[in-house]
Write a structure and sequence with these properties.
The structure is a single chain. With 336 residues, the protein is of the alpha/beta class. The protein folds into two domains: 191 residues, Glycogen Phosphorylase B (Rossmann fold), CATH 3.40.50; 125 residues, Rossmann fold (3-Layer(aba) Sandwich), CATH 3.40.50.2000. The chain has 14 helices and eleven strands. The strands form two sheets. A six-stranded parallel β-sheet has the order 2-1-3-4-5-6, sandwiched between helices. Strands 8-7-9-10-11 form a five-stranded parallel β-sheet, with helices on both faces. The radius of gyration is 21 Å and the shape is globular.
């Protein structure tokens, strides 16, 4: 079978869809399928609006002869890709990677609302945010053949506000890393890596760190912004623990990478993967610097810390990109 993967990002661009796109392509090829890749980077230099029109025609050209389009986005590439697929009679399968409207709202207002609460609260959305919700609900998701979520948690959050029939959806979990050859050697420094956006909640972590230092003067923290994955891995091996203080996380790949080498993780409790990570991480309240500080200080105790290391080493969830490719093909076959 022949598939076209349509993605907003490809390496070396940072972000989940970047590595997901090339890994999915490689895995589909290993299964014997023809898998092409079309990235929004090809038109990003053009003015907004024009770039989407040009991208639409690029999808039209590349989609000829394809059995289906796998679209790794719900906004920027989704609209031109879904429209092109619909016009050509192609199956279009959208994978949701995050929540662009929620992220945009938090960035604009600095209101630290959790994703789990966002659609149930009476919030004052901007005209742009309302348009994005309507565009996804009334055009993109209606025209798409199927919508794939990476967690059941997000599917439940989106079903009502976006009026998505459950029969039109599926869940394909993210990759969970196999155990690495190198083991975590440990250290005395907490590690956090983030991209510069409000929902990553770094201000709260910095406040927590100030509180923690008053209680535990030996605590250290390193915060990296937009660090390459290979370089981050080098720091993980020598860190005391990884902290992910985001307001909300769907399926944090960084947590799985840390657990794969036995590195303890402090993770936001507003998370789509609680059932998978439940016994492997320390949960933190992203709105409470006092709670984060308390958990950081707890892990400075060596006995408690060794317990967390054992929990990390025992993490057993595994889900490869080959598994993901098989599941995407299954979703397509069930549509045919």
């Amino acid at each position: 079978m022949r598939f076209l993967i349509v993605t907003p990002l490809i390496p070396p661009e940072p972000g989940g869809p970047s590595y997901y796109s090339v890994s999915l392509q490689e895995s589909l090829k290993k299964l014997g399928h023809d898998a092409g890749l079309l990235a929004f980077r090809e038109v990003r230099h053009l003015p907004s609006g024009i770039r989407h029109i040009v991208f639409f025609f690029k999808v039209l050209r590349r989609a000829r002869g394809m059995d289906a389009l796998f679209i790794l986005d719900t906004v920027s590439v989704a609209l031109p890709a879904v429209l092109a697929g619909w016009l050509m009679g192609k199956k279009t399968i959208i994978r949701t990677g995050g929540d662009f409207v929620w992220e945009s709202y938090v960035e604009r207002t600095k209101n630290r609302v959790l994703l789990s609460e966002f659609y149930s609260e009476q919030l004052k959305l901007s005209a742009k945010e309302k348009v994005l919700i309507g565009l996804q609900r009334d055009v993109i998701f209606k025209l798409a053949s199927s919508i794939v979520f990476n967690t059941e948690w997000q599917r439940e959050i989106w079903e009502k506000p976006y009026r998505i029939p459950k029969s039109k959806t599926d869940v394909i979990k993210n990759e969970f890393h196999h155990k690495q050859q190198c083991d975590h050697v440990g250290g005395d420094t907490y590690l956090c890596a983030w991209r510069p956006t409000t929902f990553k909640n770094i201000d709260t972590l910095n406040s927590a760190y100030d509180i923690a230092r008053n209680k535990c003067p030996d605590i250290k923290l390193k915060v990296f912004k937009s660090i390459p994955r290979d370089e981050l891995h080098e720091h993980m091996v020598k860190a005391r623990a990884l902290i992910i203080p985001s307001l909300s996380e769907l399926m944090p790949n960084m947590a799985t990478e840390a657990l794969a080498i036995g590195l303890p993780v402090l993770l936001t409790k507003d998370c789509g993967a609680r059932e998978c990570f439940d016994k492997a991480v320390t949960w933190i309240d992203p709105k409470s610097p006092e709670d984060i500080a308390s958990k950081m200080c707890e892990l400075m105790d060596e006995k408690r810390y060794m317990e967390e290391k054992e929990k990390a080493k025992a993490f057993a969830c595994e889900h490869s990109y080959e598994d993901i490719a098989v599941e995407f093909v299954r979703v397509y076959e069930e549509l045919s």
